[in-house]
Amino acid sequence: MQKFMPDIAHSAEALQEGTLDWVGMSQIELPLVVSSKDSPEQHVSALAEAFVNLNDPQAKGIHMSRLYLALDEFSNHQTLTPKTLASVLDQFISSHHSLSDQAQVTLKFDYHLRRRSLLSGKTGWKAYPVEITATYKEQTVVLELSVAVTYSSTCPCSAALARQLIQQAFDQQFTEQAIEKDQVMQWLGSTQGIVATPHSQRSIAQVKVKLNQLDSHFDILSLIDALENELKTPVQAAVKREDEQEFARLNGQNLMFCEDAARKVKHILNQQSDYSDFWLRINHYESLHAHDAVSIAVKGVAMGYTA
Ligand SMILES: Nc1nc2c(ncn2[C@@H]2O[C@H](COP(=O)(O)OP(=O)(O)OP(=O)(O)O)[C@@H](O)[C@H]2O)c(=O)[nH]1
Asked: What is the pTM of this model?
């Protein structure tokens, strides 16, 4: 016979009456199997947040164990797809029928992809921070997918200033009007031929998209590929010298202010039919100064994300 135990959540009165927008738990450690379109299933170590709203102003509290146990069941018996995540929200609501009519779960994890080098054909792992949020409100489930893509940005202004110094060095080196091509080639191949270099830096594009519908799978790979293909200079995994030379060429041919990167990302996201809304933040961790160059933009739909 189960011994009697006091149940504050049922017996105690709220110290102060009032509804609450979200009550739940964060930093829940949750091993998951992620099923993403065109990618093999992947085991990840996620951190979860689980919330319901508290509609009853007099209720002492929600039932946290019920949220936790729904997530635990999900972790042990389901792969992460839009439909299985929506079913977790159903369980959150049904286990709090008199207290809540809204629910939210957020999963944060590193998603590993094998990425091919630029020319040598080698491959290596890259980890992409991913966040998936499912929210149930007014009988509707809204799914959001966030990724962060790391790339290299080379400053166009700094490149123009460096070119001017190279021109000046050339002018000082070659005072004759008639110049032997071999002499020039030799000079260009020396450190003097690149007497100045533009500043470039590791940069991160943070993107959050609202998914149009409950597809059978999340499509993490497509979003990452779209961003990296548009930015052209994602950081590399395996790099041989031929890859490094190609990377140098790509940086030289894709000089970017943070505004340029933001407009590129906004353009490519506007081309995607799977996303009803998006938010983006470009962060250039400038090597020129101690602060960062940042651009932020949203799709600009009514009732959508705000910058
Ligand atoms: N609502 C709420 N519960 C908390 C909090 N901190 C700890 N808890 C504990 O969360 C535990 C789980 O709550 P319940 O899910 O109601 O646990 P339970 O009563 O054994 O389970 P049920 O019989 O399903 O209600 C309880 O022991 C609470 O005391 C808090 O800030 N708010």
From this structure: 0.93
Class of domain 12-155+198-298: alpha beta
Find the 252 Cα to ligand 1 centroid distance in Å: 58
Q: Is 63 in the pocket of ligand 1 (CB under 6 A)?
A: yes
Q: In this predicted model, what pLDDT tens digit does every residue of 170-219 receive, in sequence order?
A: 999 998 888 999 999 999 999 999 999 999 999 999 999 999 877 788 99
Task: Note the ipTM here.
Answer: 0.92
How many Cα atoms within 13 Å fall on the side-chain side of residue 236?
23
Q: Ligand 1 center to residue 61 CA distance, Å? A: 8
Instruction: Give the residue whose CA is nearest to atom 7 of ligand 1.
Output: 64
Identify the CA nearest to 75 among candidates 62, 94, 88, 93.
88
Count how many Cα atoms sit within 13 Å of the Cα of residue 139 in the half-sphere of its side chain: 0
- Ligand 1 mean position, distance from CA 9 (Å): 6
Q: How far is the CA of 26 from the centre of ligand 1 (A)?
A: 15
- Measured from the CA of 66, which atom of ligand 1 is nearest? 15
Residue where the block lists tokens 């929200």 = 89
Residue 257 per-residue DSSP state: -
